[in-house]
Amino acid sequence: MLITFILVILGLFSSTMRELTRQVGHDGPKWIVLDGDIDPMWIESLNTVMDDNKVLTLASNERISLSSSMRLLFEISHLRAATPATVSRAGILYVNPQDLGWSSSVHTLMQGHTLTHTYDCPLSQCILALRYVTSWIDTRQAQSERANLTILFDKYVPYCLEQVRCNLKTITPIPENSMVQTLCSLLDCLLTEDNTPPDSPRELYEIYFVFACVWAFGGALFQDHLIDYRAEFSRWWSKEMRAVKFPSQGTVFDYFIDSDTKKFSPWIERTPRFELEPDVPLQTVLVHSAETICLTYFIDLLLQRGKPVMLVGNAGVGKTILVSDKVAKLKEDYMVAKVPFNYYTTSAMLQRVLEKPLEKKAGRNYAPPGTKKLIYFIDDLNMPEVDVYGTVQPHTLIRQHLDYNHWYDRQRLVLKEIHNCQYITCMNPTAGSFSVNPRLQRHFSVFAVHFPSAEALATIFTSILSAHFLQGGFSYGVSRSVGTLIQAAICLHQKISQNFLPTAIRFHYIFNLRDLSNIFQGILFALPDCVRYPIDLVHLWLHESSRVYSDKLMEEKDVELFNKILLDTGKRYFEGIDESIFIHQPLVYCHFAHGVGEPRYHQASDWEKLQKTLTDALEHYNELHAVMNLVLFEEAMQHVCRISRILEAPHGNALLVGVGGSGKQSLCRLAAFLSTLEVFQITLRKGYGIHDLRSDIAALYIKVGVKNIGTVFLHTDAQIPDERFLVLINDMLASGDIPDLFSEEEVDMIVTSIRMELRGLGLIDNRDNCWAFFIERIRRQLKVVLCFSPVGFTLRTRARKFPALVNCTAIDWFHSWPQLALQSVSTTFIEKIPDLEPDVRASISEFISYAHTSVNEVSVKYQQNEKHFNYTTPKSFLEFMKLYGNLLGTKRRELTQKMERLENGLQKLQTTASQVEDLKAKLAVQEVELWQRNTDTEALISKIGQQTDKLNQERAVADAEEQRVGTIQAEVTTQQQQSEEDLAKAEPALQAANAALNTLNRLNLTELKTFPNPPAIVTNVSAAVMVLLAPHGKLPKDRSWKAAKVVMSKVDDFLQALVNFDKEHIPESTVRCVRDEYLSDPEFNPEFVRLKSSAAAGLCAWVLNIIRFHEVHPIHTNTQCCIHPTHTNTQCCIHPTHTNTQCCIHSTHTNTQCCIHPTHTNTQCCIHSTHTNTQCSCLFPPQVFCEVEVKKLCLSQANADLAEAADKLEAIRKKLAELDCSLDTLTAAFEKATSEKLRCQDEVNHTNKTIELANRLVKGLEPGTMSRRRLCVETFC
Ligand SMILES: Nc1ncnc2c1ncn2[C@@H]1O[C@H](COP(=O)(O)OP(=O)(O)O)[C@@H](O)[C@H]1O
Ligand SMILES: [Mg+2]
Question: Is the CB of 282 under 6 A from ligand 1?
């Protein structure tokens, strides 16, 4: 059991293992052959299968055991990526092709097939190849043929192999067996019944064998302008292999076998006549030359036999166009699927593309519809990414297909047998991964495609140009100069490609057939009225050459070198032509030289006219679109013309390379506007991905392809967030056909909408034609313009990954703006700035451009010295100018503000100057006022001081008085109390006396009086009464009854005298007399007396009580004041301050007046007439007598004094209050005055300060300063 697959996906491997374990009834070994590169990532998972465990554990935990009959066999070409774990688990058998040896192998293989015995398993590809030869010989029917072939193989092949191995080099590494295989394939094709009928002579076989051998071993040999291995091979062949003779002319590769004559004829004989179809872009025109015919011949041959073919050659040598032309001309029973490869092509994508045209047939068989054969045309085979383990996935898939004719269904993991498919591939050995895996490579018959020889080129372009001139009706002179022109063009091309070699930095210095085509395409633009004379043609050629070569050059010095080469070449080929033509400027041809409305490719006569046209166009553009402020200096105009030329060319796509802000996009927009093309740009937004781009492009395709609206697809490098965007752009540029851009329904829709147009043109309206028509229209109408920056490695990397970026576009390299251009831009800018003096404008713009250029120069030095780049872009130049404009504006504003401030200041100063004088006057007034107020306040203060003093004194007096009054009051109160007490004590006696008096009346007194001899007691009583009634204490001497009767004679008077008796002032002698003489008598008792006479009893009671009343009064010593016990006799009894000589009662009393009574003389006691001056006015020691009345008097006197003192105090208080009031008024006045003063002071201070400030200002007003400031303002202005 043998299961073979290459693309091991673990899912596939496990399902295969599972299937094998289930298979029973098969005892023999079951082989799982893993034919492909080892990928350590997945092979690690096989470790457990390959060691003693023999178990495959899956992620789902499923375990599949490797049964004893199952084997794993890895067929690999190298162990570079294998890990020790893998290597140690597998037995390794190395098969060295060299060891096998060519001839011995053939013999071995032919004799016994021992290898199968030896190894019991399929062997390496090498052995298989050798086996293939044997089997191939075996396939030949005729026995004689087989014998002849065996001899021929032995005769030629070993030598050829050795020669190729040792002395020659192929364009790409080709395994030896592959060459042998190619030989077999070619023989297969050549040894037909027609060419070699059965039993043909060996010589005939040998001719074909030699022819096949030459191409099998020499067809892929390398050739460039230094070494030509083909020529070497040819020489070697002619020298060594003499059996079959080639014509001596040229090389062995120049001839084919004429099937009729069986002789060698030159290929050139087979070239068909060329007919130029008008309006067909030159890029799609193939003009056959010997080389192309030869290649087409072999492609034809091999295709018929279904053999894979590979064309290998540098970029732009015509591989794609050749194959495209070939496949386009294939008969109906062929289908072609074009599969352009790019860096991001994966095996899954490839499989999808490969499967698309296939149909399911019976079982697991797939094939193209019907009996058709399918050709996969894989362009740029070596472009896809090489993964980390050195595998190119799409290649592996193709190899699987070529090796086993099958691949697996990726979903269902079942085999799909693919039939009736074959490959034609092209690749550039200097691009992508350079070479392909030898195990894939060996399947192909390889043919090197070289840059056409000078003759071939001459043939191609003479055919084209002559046809054009002939059809266009150009003058004879012009048509005649075609030959020279083409020679010059070829020579120039050769010189250019020799002088400008590609390097890492100048990666795009690749000059090939595309460039030559572009030159002639440019020439084809011109109509007879533009090229009237040969000289016009030369001029046009100079222009086109400059556009194609010079516009690509990235440095000024390269451009200079180019100009020199161009001049030299021109002079060499166009002798006799006026030399001025080579330096004539402007060397510009454009489609709007005669105005925008007249699209004719013509020379622009002068810059001014061109500028006018472009300025008008720009204005027009600005009216319709967002405004672009472009300065159309010479270089800018040139770029517009260049871009316009590219856009006008069929299949014209542009790659504009320049640093940011060099005007790529804007100029492109203007150029597009000139060519009435719309501009489409994607709008990047967050999350914009490849799918969005795809749908944007799809919409654009429908707009352009179906609606036929010419559009420019403008794309900048800022719009490439994902490098895979370039896959689509690369396809757009390379073929216009983007795989999977539209769904089947969309394609149907497009086809339906195109169909009518095709019918209208009389073309067959099948689906393929419609699609081709659609794509062709896209290529013509959709112009891709890429605006990239040369900074860094990005562009280089992109160009390597996506060759169409450089190969399928016309490059316009934007150089740094020359100083003149910068100046013209800066002048335009400066002109827009208002208020600049005309004489400085020029110098400013010159300086701006000078600064930029000098920074550029320094940056170059910096780069040379420091290896760092400093990019000064036109954008930075524009920013620089913008900054200047902004700065100027800001500074101007600042200055104006300052000026205004200064002006204001000056004005203020002047106003202040005038105000200062006023202020000074005001201050003087204020100062006077202040002084006045100060004086007033001080006067007021002193007045208030005095007043306060006085007040204080008064207050002290009042206080003292108050105190005194208080004391008097206290005394009076005490005295009053005492008096009252005394009075209270005396009162009963008095009352008793009064009561006694009341008992007396006229009657009883009269009765008494009538007593003739009254008892003694009665006489005593009357005597006592007489004593008492005696005036002034003069004791009556006659106290007899008789005397008594006299006294009582007038009863009423007597009674009245008794009633009015001055009981308070009874003289002490009287009292003593009464007491001693009468009262001592025990009979002197009213009760006793009553017995005698009631009136006498009444009188007795009266006397008794009067004396008792008298006695009740306290006993005053004479040392004491009668009023106050503490008074000394030297003191006034009433007032302490009174002197003896003063009245004791009232200060106003004079000495001579009695203090008590007005009648008292000063010699009398103020209280008692008996008192001497020197005695107390009240008492005589040790006399004690009761003086209630005096006391009362004293009390009333004291009360009067108190009242008087109180009055006095009141008066004082009143005065004090008045004083207080006036003091308050004064204080208020003082406060007011003080505040007034303060206010005045403040005012003065304020004015002083103002004056000080003003003075400072005034200082500035000195004439010098003022004039200086004025000058300042004027300078600013
Ligand atoms: N035999 C030829 N006749 C006319 N033009 C050719 C011929 N060979 C190449 N060219 C020009 O060269 C260009 C590049 O050819 P192409 O096949 O794309 O190159 P590549 O080898 O890179 O695939 C073509 O577009 C065509 O203009
Ligand atoms: Mg190509």
Answer: yes
Q: How far apart are CA 784 and CA 554, in angstroms?
A: 21
**Residue linked to tokens 């008064």:** 954
Kindly give the distance from the C-alpha atom of residue 427 to the centroid of ligand 2, in angstroms, as a whole number. Answer: 7
**pTM exceeding 0.85:** no
pLDDT at 130: 59
The two structure tokens encoding residue 77 = 């070409």
**501 Cα to the center of ligand 2, angstroms:** 20
Task: Say how far apart CA 198 and CA 1211 lie, in whole Å.
Answer: 180
- Give the least confident one: 961-965, 1120-1124, 1261-1265: 1120-1124
118-169 per-position pLDDT tens digit: 232 333 444 555 566 778 888 888 888 888 998 898 899 888 988 998 999 9
Q: Using CA atoms, how far apart are residues 284 and 322, in angstroms rounded to an integer?
A: 10
Substitution candidate for ligand 1 out of 464, 513, 523 with most atoms within 8 A of CB: 513
Q: What pLDDT is stored for residue 119 in this prediction?
A: 31
pLDDT of 792 reads 86
Helix (H) or strand (E) holding 726: helix 725-734
Give yes or no for a contact between 170 and 222, defined as CB atoms under 8 angstroms apart. yes
CA torsion 833→834→836→841, rounded to 10°? 40
The full DSSP string for 908-943 is HHHHHHHHHHHHHHHHHHHHHHHHHHHHHHHHHHHH
> In angstroms, rounded to a whole number, what is the distance separating the alpha carbons of residues 376 and 444?
13
Phi, psi of 408 (to 5 degrees): -100, 145
Instruction: pLDDT band for 1119, please (50, 70, 90 cuts).
Output: very low
Structure tokens at 1006: 């009269």
The rounded distance, in Å, linking the Cα atoms of 293 and 266 is 11
pLDDT tens for 486-532 read: 999 999 999 999 999 999 999 999 999 999 999 999 999 888 988 99
Q: What is the average per-residue pLDDT within 1240-1244?
A: 83
Question: Which pairs with CB-CB distance under 8 Å and at least 24 residues apart come from 859-862?
Answer: none
Is residue 517 in contact with ligand 1, taking CB distance under 6 Å? yes
Give the start-end residues of each E strand in 380-527.
406-408, 415-418, 421-427, 445-448
Rg for the chain, CA atoms, rounded: 75
Buried b / exposed e along 1160-1182 (16+ C-beta atoms within 10 A) = bebebbbbbbebeeebbbbbbee
Banded pLDDT at 585 (limits 50, 70, 90)? confident
Q: Does residue 806 have its Cβ closer than 6 Å to ligand 1? A: no
Residue 124 Cβ contacting ligand 1 at under 6 Å? no
Angle between helices 125-139 and 143-167 (to 10 degrees): 150
Q: Residue 116: CA atoms inside 13 Å, Cβ hemisphere, count?
A: 7
- Ligand 1 pocket member 521 (CB < 6 A): no
State if residue 142 touches ligand 1 by the CB under 6 angstroms criterion: no
- The predicted structure's pLDDT at residue 18: 87
* Cα–ligand 2 centroid distance for 270 (angstroms): 24
Pairing type for strands 602-603 and 654-657 reads unpaired
What pLDDT is recorded for position 59? 81
Rounded Cα distance, 366 and 975, in Å: 159
Tens of pLDDT, residues 1038-1084 = 888 888 888 888 888 888 888 888 877 788 888 888 888 888 888 88
- State the Cα–Cα distance between residues 131 and 177, nearest whole angstrom: 10
Closest CA to 965 of 690, 605, 1211: 1211
Ligand lying closest to the C-alpha of residue 319 = 1
pLDDT at 1133 over 80: no
φ/ψ of residue 785, rounded to 5? -120, 120
* pLDDT of 319 higher than 60: yes
- Report which bound ligand comes closest to the CA of 338: 2
